[in-house]
Design goal:
Its cofactor is Zn(2+). Pathway: Lipid metabolism; malonyl-CoA biosynthesis; malonyl-CoA from acetyl-CoA: step 1/1. It is found in: Cytoplasm. Pfam families: Carboxyl_trans (PF01039), Zn_ribbon_ACC (PF17848). The chain is of the alpha/beta class. The chain has a single domain, classed as 2-enoyl-CoA Hydratase, Chain A, domain 1. Helix content is 33%, strand content 18%. It contains 10 helices and 11 strands. It has a 7-stranded mixed sheet, with helices on both faces. The longest helix has 20 residues.
């Protein structure tokens, strides 16, 4: 018998007590309660732990698919990508980091913008791609965030930005810091026109993003237990030499101190945003009688809806 046949037989019939390999990614262990869940089931539950409600990191593509109504999403400016004007080099060249991030994430930079309907309401939307260099904000990210506001202004649409970022991108130096002023100025024009901007803070939202447009929303929503703040809690604790309050810089802490308007589970986010946009005068109003609540999620009754 050939050697490859004997190897196959050994794999098919492992010896008693032998280990059987499990395909990588088949199961996911919750970071909060340590419950092990079948990954496919976790994805179907929007990567929210069915036991404790912990919100796992959600890839940007899934975020867009679960937020925007099917068939309505149109991405804009996907061709924009960062240059290296400072020819920055640390342990690696910035250009090499960009190439690696593009290859890993399949995206040209850390922000995706476009238009689409959220629960039937047309909006100008932006999503941070944390999988690209930790969602850091460079010149391209600042430009695309600005375009979200400018498109909303041009078309008379509400603006929504889902933020998940480590802050300004150090490899672009002052050019990245300038994006804080640029995006805030574009947001101010939207406010002057009386068009609403809903900012959704995800885990984590920190640095220059938190210090600019992320906290300038007319309504600021956050996912549960998200880390939100300028500097990280360890940096603050080491700087001031004092113990921080329990739960410091979580979305719950910020809600208690008036920095966030509402904490919304990912399972309810789309419906809650749609409801808020209709209350702000956009889209068709859906009477409460035409909605039912199932497991905390508002379900629209299509048969009786206008």
């Amino acid at each position: 018998m050939a050697w490859w046949r004997r190897k196959k037989d050994a794999l098919e019939r492992p010896e008693p007590g032998g280990k059987v390999s499990v395909p990588a990614g088949l199961w996911t262990k919750c970071d909060s309660c340590s419950e092990i869940t079948y990954t496919e089931e976790l994805v179907q539950n929007l990567r929210v732990c069915p036991v404790c409600g912990h919100h796992h990191v959600m890839p940007t593509g899934e975020r867009i698919a679960t937020t925007v109504d099917p068939g309505t999403w149109v991405e804009h400016h996907e061709h924009l990508c960062s240059g290296d004007p400072l020819e920055f080099t640390d342990s690696k060249r910035y250009k090499d980091r960009l190439d690696a991030a593009t290859k890993k994430s399949g995206r040209n930079d850390a922000f995706v913008c476009g238009t689409g309907k959220v629960d039937g309401v047309e909006a100008s939307l932006g999503f941070f791609a944390f999988e690209f260099m930790g969602g850091s904000m460079g010149s391209v990210v600042g430009e695309k965030v600005t375009l979200v506001f400018e498109r909303a202004l041009e078309q008379g649409l509400p603006a929504l930005v889902f933020s998940a970022s480590g802050g300004a991108r150090m490899q672009e130096g002052i050019l990245s810091l300038m994006q804080m002023a640029k995006t805030s100025a574009a947001r101010a024009k939207l406010r002057e026109a009386g068009l609403p901007y809903i900012s959704v803070l995800l885990h984590p939202t920190t640095g220059g993003v938190a210090a600019s447009f992320a906290f300038l929303g007319d309504l600021i929503l956050a996912e549960p237990r998200a880390l939100i703040g300028f500097a990280g809690p360890r940096v603050i604790q080491q700087t001031i030499g004092q113990e921080l309050p329990e739960g410091f810089q979580t979305s719950e802490f910020l809600l208690e101190h008036g920095m966030v308007d509402r904490i919304v589970s990912r399972l309810e986010m789309r419906d809650q945003i749609g409801l808020l946009l209709r209350l702000l005068g956009f889209g068709e109003h859906i009477p409460r009688a035409n909605q039912t609540m199932t497991d905390g999620v508002i379900i629209r009754d299509e048969a009786s809806a206008p």
